[in-house]
Amino acid sequence: MQSCTANTREALSPCTLVIFGASGDLTARKLIPALHGLFCTDSQPRPFQIVGCARTPLNTEAFRDLLLEALTNRGPEPPAGWQKFAQHLAYIPVQYDDAQAFTELAASLRQMDRDHQTQGNRIFYLATPPSLYPVIAAQLGRAGLAAEKTGGNGWVRIVVEKPFGRDLASALELDQVLHQSFHEHQIFRIDHYLAKETVQNILMLRFANTIFEPLWNRGYIDYIGIMAAEQLGVEHRAGYYEQTGILRDMFQNHMQQLLALTAMEPPSLFEAERVRDEKAKCSRSLKPLDRATLAEHLVIGQYGSGAIDGRRVAGYRDEPGVALASRTPTFAMLRLFVDNWRWRDVPFYLISGKRLARKETKIVVQFKRVPHSMFRDMLAERIPANRLTLGIYPDEEIDITFQTKTPGPRVCLRPVRMDFKYNQNDKAPALDAYAKVLLDVIQGDHMLFWRQDGVELAWSFLTPILEECEACGDRAQQLHPYPAGSWGPEAAQEWMRLILNN
Ligand code: BG6
Question: Count of CB atoms within 10 A of residue 235's CB?
Answer without folding.
Answer: 11
